[in-house]
Amino acid sequence: MDHIVTEARREVDERFDTARITAAVDALATEHAGREDVFRSAVAKLLKAELIEARSTAQAVLLRDRHGRRCAERLCFVQDEIIRILFDAATRHLYHSPIPSGAERMAVVATGGYGRGLMAPESDIDLLFILPYKQTAWGEQVAEAILYCLWDMGLKVGHATRSVDESIRQARGDMTIRTAILETRFLTGDQPLYDELVTRFDKEVVQGNATEFVTAKLAEREERHRRAGQSRYLVEPNVKDGKGGLRDLHTLFWIAKYVYRVRDTDELLERGVFDAQEYRTFRRCADFLWSVRCNLHFLTGRAEERLSFDTQREIAIRLGYTSHPGMQDVERFMKHYFLIAKEVGDLTAILCAKLENEQAKPVPVLSRMMARFRPSAVRRRVPESDDFIIDHNRINLAAPDVFKHDPVNMIRIFRLAQKNNLAFHPDAMRTVTRSLKLVNTELRADPEANRLFMEILTSNDAEIVLRRMNETGVLGHFIRAFGKIVSMMQFNMYHHYTVDEHLIRCIGFLQEIERGGSDEFIVASDLMRKIRPEHRPVLYIATLLHDIAKGRLEDHSIAGAKVARRLCPRLGFSPADTELVAWLIEEHLTMSTVAQSRDLTDRKTIENFAAVVQSVEQMKLLTILTTADIRGVGPGVWNGWKAQLLRTLYYETEPVLTGGFSEVDRARRLAIAQGEFRSAFTEWPEQELNAYISRHYPAYWLKVELPRKIRHARFMRASEQAGHKLAINVGFDEGRGVTELTILAMDHPWLLSIIAGACASAGANIVDAQIYTTTDGRALDTIAITREYDRDEDEGRRATRIGDMIEDVLEGKLRLPEVVARRAASRGKVRPFVVEPEVTVNNQWSDRFTVIEVSGLDRPGLLYDLTTAISKLNLNIASAHVATFGERARDVFYVTDLLGAQISAPTRQAAIRSALLHLLASEKVAA
């Protein structure tokens, strides 16, 4: 890597002059002669100051030239020189041996990431001290002197001291040590000793073991992806260990070094591992990821590898991204990041295919669910086509020009792979990517191409095939509106994936709904079996397109409906079905909003929703789409409570649409819900069970899922038998990462506000709330709060403190406003989001109540502040519907005046809006 060192040396020599620093060390040795500890401390202090100066220079140059790889080279060069200076000081001034014996030899070697000659600002330093034989007193003293100085400088050092024989022996049995030695780089000391290690390692460890190493490294990669999150499109990716991150590039290079015995990345091109274009991609990906990683370390001052929301905008600014209409600077930066991550995945596939051809790893199939290694000829024709062959269970091209002579093959290859459960040969995918110009207006209008696309969309493994179409660029070229949202992230905490990945995942969940058998999707699966057969493709295309217009200035639901009206006729949909697709896209958020933020026992809510959906068939389709959409947002977003809300909304609305008597139908469903509870809960005698059932209003039985009803029954009985005025049950929802507090207390006009204030005082942020009152005047409220501790025991104690505070407030022992104010003053930094506050005061959503809908930036204490403000406005809160969508809180309150009437005076409504907007705006200004 001499060219790296030379270039780096030129750029840092002005500030980091090795000769000058060595002379300063020599002067310190003279000054502190005979005082080893003092000399060592003085050297560490000198070198630490020089390192700080060098890092400051490196950061300044990085901000100027935005070249992360060069920055990593500069930092590595400086670290190399520091270790050489320390070795020189130790062997000349501390432990000088005028006539060294054969055992008094040592090679200091960089290993791991440091061995690659690239180093992030806060990276660990991995060193190997190589000895000719066993450890000697001299070798131990020299190694300790170097290590103690590095530690005194505040550096994180991983180290090992081994002889050549021991290194070879351990490398044979330990894959981690084998990989570390694979990446060794000589720093200083005895060069022949290092050369001996390299020669013996190649001959005694590497030769004949390529398959073992490749298999181990790819398995390690899979496990790392599993821990970091399988998708490369997570919106807070890990730059180092995430899918498509730097570690994937490192794994590629490890395998290439091991199998093809290359020493530098340039040799990947020389040995034919990559062609010229692929090698440029390799370098470009590495440069970009190193830029992100170095900036991330400099920004945070620690070895931070996760590109969190807190850092994304600042990194975007550092890298020079600017905002465009419809896309923020940070969203443009993250889109570029995900495109790079995709290219890293493509490079991995290319190398793996080369290894498979050379029998260094097993061959794949399309779907892991259907994976079976069945006997087959190595190469044979694909059924139904002479243009494609099966090559080791992968679809490949029969001739290089199959796309040119028939551009429909650009779509057909994906359909044939899907029908025959074939994986995609990287050579074929490479040719597809380089033939994208064939996906032109003529191909988009081709009836056969559009027919094949709809078959892909509506057949098994559509998610897998669509993802491959997306990664090659075919999907974005064939449906140009889709191309605009490829790798687009939304800068919010609600969506876990990029827009394109979310849409493709939704197709996967739609197919899971259609297969049935999952407890997650009981209602949606039942409705899927009942929709008209001709509406099945309508549902699939609506699911694929529902967020197609994200990133535009116009509302994405309305703009998406326009896209559907232009696209669907081309795909073979009739005018009626095209309008149905457009309607589903335009209303795809409606059902979720109504279910989570409206009173489903209010007749007006149901009538308004029925007016939107218009027919039972459209409501079925919308219910299924809504289920797939919420489930596709990310882990933990979909849960039993939301499923129950959608179910309740559906069955409350169905009689209105069919012209039936809704109250009669509701009574029947109420009897069914209570009957399910009786059948599942057999612990109590019938008389006690009847009395308990009569304590809850119909809304409770219709809206709460069965397992929660059973927990509530046990909790209420135990609390009342113990004579508690107030009781709290603590539960943990692992899927959502929240702690649930179920509170049983005497109902009180300010109870919700008190609970919210107690949570705020404990620093707990409320993300969900289910609020019910019993017929005998008890409140049964379930509050979901974000976790603070990893251990359930610690969370349980935190919940107990919240309960004690609620009880103290109810008994007048504690003044809540003062406690909340103190907590607010000590609150940490605000999340880096801005949510435009909105307040709606509406009398059309209910005949009995005025509905106040509040939307703004979520924060601890927000619900307390809102309920307190509403109470100070002399309003009674009849019910509250609390929901959080990432950083956005959407809280809806059904209120009346003190006489129980709606708020009808325009001036009074304006005062309510003004007061609540002022409350929200103060938080926006702080952000």
TrEMBL record:
Superkingdom of origin: Bacteria
GO molecular function annotations of the record: [protein-PII] uridylyltransferase activity; phosphoric diester hydrolase activity
Swiss-Prot/TrEMBL keywords: Hydrolase, Magnesium, Multifunctional enzyme, Nucleotidyltransferase, Repeat, Transferase
Segments of this protein annotated with the region Uridylyltransferase: 1-383
Record-linked CDD domains: ACT_ACR-UUR-like_2, ACT_UUR-like_1, NT_GlnE_GlnD_like
SUPFAM superfamilies: ACT-like, Nucleotidyltransferase, Nucleotidyltransferase substrate binding subunit/domain, Poly A polymerase C-terminal region-like
The protein's role, per its UniProt record: Modifies, by uridylylation and deuridylylation, the PII regulatory proteins (GlnB and homologs), in response to the nitrogen status of the cell that GlnD senses through the glutamine level. Under low glutamine levels, catalyzes the conversion of the PII proteins and UTP to PII-UMP and PPi, while under higher glutamine levels, GlnD hydrolyzes PII-UMP to PII and UMP (deuridylylation). Thus, controls uridylylation state and activity of the PII proteins, and plays an important role in the regulation of nitrogen metabolism.
Name of the featured protein: Bifunctional uridylyltransferase/uridylyl-removing enzyme
Source organism of this protein record: Bradyrhizobium erythrophlei
